[in-house]
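Office hours follow-up: a student asked to see two folded examples consecutively, so here they are.
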Amino acid sequence: MSYLEEYYLSYDEERRLLSQHGQVEYLTTMKYVEECLSGIDAPSILEIGAGTGRYSVTLAKRGLRVTAVELIDHNIEVLKSKLDGSEPIEVYKGNALDLSVLPDASFDLTMLLGPMYHLYTREDKLKALSEAVRVTKPGGRILVAYCMNEPTVISYVFGLNHLIEVTEKNMLTPDWHCISEPKDLFELVRTEEIASLDAEFPVERLKLVATDGATNYLKELIDGMDRATFNKWMEYHFTVCERQDLIGASHHTLDILRKK
């Protein structure tokens, strides 16, 4: 069993997204999904790395045509358990690096909301992006989520007092970039690395969004908010989530691309 399979067998990703602090990332992502789908009649949607279906199932239950590709058997089982058979969704076991089962230029919206968290080489990241671009229609949108470097340095290395550990294990470069391996589960990037990946493909960036912004620095505070205060937090977050001077400090980002 891989590190990734072990992680998703024991970690409740669904519970995280349903927590009040986790809702910020979910609600922000859905806001931009809906923006990308606006004006398209009967859109075709692909989610690569669909996980337990938080996005795919939600969209399919709205009657939208969804294709969900997921690598981990446990996640596929959870995803399918949410379906009653009436939803227009197809679910495949597959890898973001090889979508050969899917034809070129098939989808109006392609979502890559998890795989880039777990790809550790530039070659693999480019392959995953290449496949996502290939299966998207010209003019279609591609949403790519990333985990960012600086929040981990701030929150994990210093905030949780792991400085000695990561230093002894040579997990930091001289310029404080985290060095990840599959056993570490998550690959961390900076905004310039995302731009460098995009530059390899016939795509135009429409937006780079901080999907949780400052939220994960304040988890306990966010989870303790009453609904009215939380709604105000979301109002603030939506006001600043596209500000490029804040992007790198967000734990998660969403790169919104248009295929030329």
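And the second, which I mentioned at the end of office hours:
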Amino acid sequence: MLREKNKKNLIGVSRNELEVELIEMGEKAFRTKQLWHWIYHQGETDFSKMTSLGKTLRAKLQDDYVLVKPEIVTQQISEDTTHKWLLKTEDGNEVETVFIPEDDRGALCVSSQVGCTLTCSFCHTGTQKLVRNLTAAEIVGQMMVARDSYDEWPSDGHDRKLTNIVMMGMGEPLYNFEEVSKALRIIMDEEGISISRRRITLSTSGVVPLIERCGEELGVGLAVSLHAVHDELRDILVPINKKYPIKELLDACRRYPGSSNARRITFEYVMLNGINDSASDAKELARLLLDIPAKINLIPFNKWPGVEYECSSHHKIKQFSEILNERGLSAPIRMPRGRDIMAACGQLKSASKQPRRYSDKHSNV
């Protein structure tokens, strides 16, 4: 849906900003709660259907504002029920969003940038240069599109499928902290979408100066893309390591507000055959994390066109996990999801370039 000329989009506007808009229209502040409820609890995008608002206010809103979400370009559903959307923003750029359903819950993997600031050598998204940061509207909009697809409005449904948010899609969330923070506050608001901070995880490749701030201001779960135990290798796999090496990164994790044995920091570790999967790597990883409340997600490497890395064997990954377990660390092996539709970890990539005009080569599935 494209925005009507000169009309302001109210999706992605903070609660305080929404109140200012209404007061400037001559409305009372209490209308903010009503409008917020319609947008984020009911998921309504047609002002004329917001029946608890007066006809005059509905007409004013219709004249001056819109409620615009990203447009679905394509959507694919994997054999394992993973659901991937390619979404188009108003300026014609594209991002991917992935929903990973499980029996009793489901995580929506949300993107924060078009392309990526980073160039991690094993990650498909890293081969796409950064086009731009997403706005709060575009980040919240991904959640709303997914809710639309699964008919999960109003927000208080007891059989909700979309229970968790993981900021693990395209981009580095901490390099777009202001808009990500604004979006997550909207998503966490108890009178709207109402996803608890305990059900939200933000993943970073190691933007050290913003890690502590993320914990203090948002209080969400933290996941760190580690992938190596020595700086020499991590410099290659995760080049931001040259700026913020492993020691600085782990020191920031030790200071992360709210981390405890009950709420551990997740360390993501992609398993690359002959690169980072030796027994000595596992032992060093255990040593590095000895005094950090930690869980290690071991991720079988997901291939993508043109990459030279190979996934470690199942036996090697299992052995790596057992070494960590013996040293008191939880190290589950993540079951790959959505590989057949390029929706698995490290496989996301859109066709957006800078500059780029939207092409009609995509069609809905």
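Two things to take away from it. The domain at 71-341 is CATH 3.20.20.70 (TIM Barrel). The chain has two domains: 8-66, 71-341.
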